[in-house]
Amino acid sequence: MNLESKIPEGPLAEKWARHKFGLKLVNPANKRKYEVIVVGTGLAGASAAASLAELGYTVKAFCFQDSPRRAHSIAAQGGINAAKNYQNDGDSVFRLFYDTIKGGDYRAREGNVYRLAEVSVNIIDQCVAQGVPFAREYGGLLANRSFGGAQVSRTFYARGQTGQQLLLGAYSALSRQIANGKVKMFPRTEMLDLVVEGGKARGIITRNLVTGKIESHSAHAVLLCTGGYGNVFYLSTNAMGSNVTAAWRAHKKGALMANPCFTQIHPTCIPVKGKYQSKLTLMSESLRNDGRVWAPKTKEDAEKIRKGELKPTDLKEEDRDYFLERRYPAFGNLVPRDVASRNAKYVCDEGRGVAATGLAVYLDFADAIKRDGRTTIEAKYGNLFEMYEKIVDDNPYETPMMIYPAVHYTMGGLWVDYNLMTTIPGLYALGEANFSDHGANRLGASALMQGLADGYFVVPYTLGDYLATIGHADKLPVEAPAFKAAEAEVKHMVDRLLSAKGERTPEEIHRELGHIMWDYCGMSRSAEGLKKAKGMIQDLKKEFWTNMRVVGDAEEMNQALEQAGRVADFIELGELMVDDALAREESCGGHFREEYQTEDGEALRDDANFAYVAAWEYKGDNQPEVLHKEELVFENVKLTQRSYK
Amino acid sequence: MKINLKVWRQKNGNAAGKLVDYKLDNISPDMSFLEMFDVLNDELMHKGEEPVAFDHDCREGICGMCSMYINGRAHGPQTGATTCQLHMRSFADGDTIIVEPWRARAFPVIKDLMVDRSAFDRVVQSGGYVSVNTGSARDANETLIPRTIADEAMDAAQCIGCGACVAACKNASAMLFVAAKVSHLAVLPQGQAEASIRAERMVAQMDAEGFGACSFTGACSVECPKSISLDHIARLNREYLGAKITSEAV
């Protein structure tokens, strides 16, 4: 298979403009004749559905939640980057591009990343026009802050609820198009298969989650905006419903999955408390702007704290180890997420972790409060502190917060070309569901930027080119055999899940999968561990299909059935992630292989052999997937070892 | 902790429902309320019984999906929090907890504790937006919006659309929800052009959906997980009256 990235020729700064001019256009009068399916209504999906409908296309949008407004983009806290340079601090499109590609440890395409930086400025304009209430200065200009790993202030924010406000902006645009009759919305509906015929994506098969009805939907193109697969780890900052099913079933129909092992572990989450824990809560990275990360210098002190014999505030300054400031004097507490997470893990591995589990470090605001006053800190982070107090029952103004890394984002995803089209013509992947822009590590405040860039400013251009090429007559009716066959396949899968009469719930198996993934394919990976994990996952898959039990019927609201289907896909994805992590014999970004590290424990890349995108092709149930490589070409940046010292 | 639960079970929208008793041992005070329900469902499934259906997703208080009426209060005894942010430490060992779905004509029950809140979506579709197509925006800093105005807009805009205001209201009125959206856009310059028509249309849709009238008792604001202020209802009333006087639409 030839993976053609379709990166346009020409100088970096002109690629997108040139490409847009070269794309075919659909006649305005013909646009309504084209139907487009959008799966998922988060930032990428809602913005794409609204923008395409505004252009005149006929859109059907789907989400599994009860309303498009609830997609998990809503939970993003910190902010959205844009190269506006409003602060006159040396930002530019090129700098945002450079930071993003470097932050991703040089495992993303230059062309894609540059385009992302380029359209970032339009996103802010668009959102403000919609009424997104970004933070402002007293004079009325937009406020900015610096954010995770950036040395300029380019992050726009709406308190600690930036994702919510951006999503509500996109949701309002989508709602307007629903009212106009240009978008037909299907909430509480889950995509369970992709229909491919004649080498093109033709539509999807869905299950109505309220009635259980299996239905076919036909279109000229299908856009998967279905988010990431962090829940493969069971515990993550993702919403409970976030899943890989749409993307995975498209993968099984021929779409290649790229860099699946690139997952992001976020350093500042509330630590795990008990076995019953269902999810982890993120504390925004912005907290690291003022909070100082530390652990006790000695194991003895840490142990006393764990036993409750000592309080963190009892520890004198000289008995504390501000390990990020010590190891990375230039960036200090603001090092990128992968670096911060790994260091927290090292400290806990050394026995210097706190909390009853020993799996936590401190994020301390005492100095910031002393310096700026409690009122200032409250204004900046009040809602986050409140959230922390609700969960932990501890006041972070007085006692330092406890944090530990947790799975947060997945950089890997469906392989797409520059047009965001997957290896199946007519099937697109946007936002976190694709692999394209963040390389091996995503910088803070870049996920919102990418989701909206793809939906508002990329796919409305690139989709037209495909549609104009195929023509509006090229659509398959839902009565066609390809749809009927796919429907039958979906029904068979549902029956199979309901017919298993074993002992274990889907939840239990999911939790077990999560442990395997976290232990062997999490913050630190080794060949030995990964091989072991592969066997464990294969055993778990057998266990799932022989010893699982789903109560209830197919023709009704059945949340256990929904979950079982998602867990089945997570298990298969988990195995592929392990394969991918094993095949990538280097460390880069969030992918840290213990065998490949520098003397002082930093990730050691191997650019000569691994500067490629690993794209995996499905070959059938229980068959090994085939690896295809897309070489990454760097013409505008020099590949250096990331240094934050 | 030991907990006695009385949970509303209803097979579907057409079936009759009733409260069913469950007993749980070994509940940790650190568990969230929904994690306690996970434990219940796990036990039920192991017994081959159907788990309790309930809406939930982000479990961090922002998606607005969770919606339980706990001991006669929307989202339970805490203020300024959603059901998923409620922890078992808010209850005492041996407590009996009654859990029901949101009760409102405009929110029909789908199953057990799950209700249909699509009426809210239709209210937003009727006018809860600024009509601006992608690509037609001017530079974001060209419109000056003083911090106080931006903050006021944000206070209203942070509504999570959970419906607790409706569930808490004796009339099942959606005034706080509608007011939050109208207010958010009415205080911002971007929302001015459509301010009148927005207020008129959203109120008309709210009435069409079967929500009750507002008698301004303030229960909505007390139970709102984002503590959205009643001031926004006052603003909605002003916007609506102004619109009625000046506009011929609707």
UniProtKB/TrEMBL annotation, chain A:
<feature type="domain" description="FAD-dependent oxidoreductase 2 FAD-binding">
    <location>
        <begin position="36"/>
        <end position="448"/>
    </location>
</feature>
<keyword id="KW-0285">Flavoprotein</keyword>
<keyword id="KW-0249">Electron transport</keyword>
<dbReference type="GO" id="GO:0009055">
    <property type="term" value="F:electron transfer activity"/>
</dbReference>
<dbReference type="GO" id="GO:0005886">
    <property type="term" value="C:plasma membrane"/>
</dbReference>
<dbReference type="GO" id="GO:0009061">
    <property type="term" value="P:anaerobic respiration"/>
</dbReference>
<dbReference type="InterPro" id="IPR030664">
    <property type="entry name" value="SdhA/FrdA/AprA"/>
</dbReference>
<keyword id="KW-0560">Oxidoreductase</keyword>
<dbReference type="InterPro" id="IPR036188">
    <property type="entry name" value="FAD/NAD-bd_sf"/>
</dbReference>
<dbReference type="Pfam" id="PF02910">
    <property type="entry name" value="Succ_DH_flav_C"/>
</dbReference>
<comment type="similarity">
    <text>Belongs to the FAD-dependent oxidoreductase 2 family. FRD/SDH subfamily.</text>
</comment>
<dbReference type="GO" id="GO:0050660">
    <property type="term" value="F:flavin adenine dinucleotide binding"/>
</dbReference>
<dbReference type="InterPro" id="IPR015939">
    <property type="entry name" value="Fum_Rdtase/Succ_DH_flav-like_C"/>
</dbReference>
<dbReference type="GO" id="GO:0008177">
    <property type="term" value="F:succinate dehydrogenase (quinone) activity"/>
</dbReference>
<keyword id="KW-1003">Cell membrane</keyword>
<keyword id="KW-0274">FAD</keyword>
<dbReference type="InterPro" id="IPR037099">
    <property type="entry name" value="Fum_R/Succ_DH_flav-like_C_sf"/>
</dbReference>
<protein>
    <recommendedName>
        <fullName>succinate dehydrogenase</fullName>
        <ecNumber>1.3.5.1</ecNumber>
    </recommendedName>
</protein>
<feature type="active site" description="Proton acceptor">
    <location>
        <position position="337"/>
    </location>
</feature>
<keyword id="KW-0813">Transport</keyword>
<feature type="domain" description="Fumarate reductase/succinate dehydrogenase flavoprotein-like C-terminal">
    <location>
        <begin position="510"/>
        <end position="644"/>
    </location>
</feature>
<dbReference type="InterPro" id="IPR011280">
    <property type="entry name" value="Succ_DH/Fum_Rdt_flav_su"/>
</dbReference>
Automatic annotation (TrEMBL), chain B:
<dbReference type="InterPro" id="IPR036010">
    <property type="entry name" value="2Fe-2S_ferredoxin-like_sf"/>
</dbReference>
<dbReference type="InterPro" id="IPR017896">
    <property type="entry name" value="4Fe4S_Fe-S-bd"/>
</dbReference>
<dbReference type="GO" id="GO:0009060">
    <property type="term" value="P:aerobic respiration"/>
</dbReference>
<dbReference type="InterPro" id="IPR009051">
    <property type="entry name" value="Helical_ferredxn"/>
</dbReference>
<feature type="domain" description="4Fe-4S ferredoxin-type">
    <location>
        <begin position="150"/>
        <end position="180"/>
    </location>
</feature>
<dbReference type="InterPro" id="IPR006058">
    <property type="entry name" value="2Fe2S_fd_BS"/>
</dbReference>
<dbReference type="GO" id="GO:0022904">
    <property type="term" value="P:respiratory electron transport chain"/>
</dbReference>
<comment type="similarity">
    <text>Belongs to the succinate dehydrogenase/fumarate reductase iron-sulfur protein family.</text>
</comment>
<dbReference type="GO" id="GO:0009055">
    <property type="term" value="F:electron transfer activity"/>
</dbReference>
<dbReference type="GO" id="GO:0051537">
    <property type="term" value="F:2 iron, 2 sulfur cluster binding"/>
</dbReference>
<dbReference type="Pfam" id="PF13183">
    <property type="entry name" value="Fer4_8"/>
</dbReference>
<dbReference type="InterPro" id="IPR012675">
    <property type="entry name" value="Beta-grasp_dom_sf"/>
</dbReference>
<protein>
    <submittedName>
        <fullName>Succinate dehydrogenase/fumarate reductase iron-sulfur subunit</fullName>
    </submittedName>
</protein>
<dbReference type="InterPro" id="IPR050573">
    <property type="entry name" value="SDH/FRD_Iron-Sulfur"/>
</dbReference>
<dbReference type="InterPro" id="IPR025192">
    <property type="entry name" value="Succ_DH/fum_Rdtase_N"/>
</dbReference>
<dbReference type="Pfam" id="PF13085">
    <property type="entry name" value="Fer2_3"/>
</dbReference>
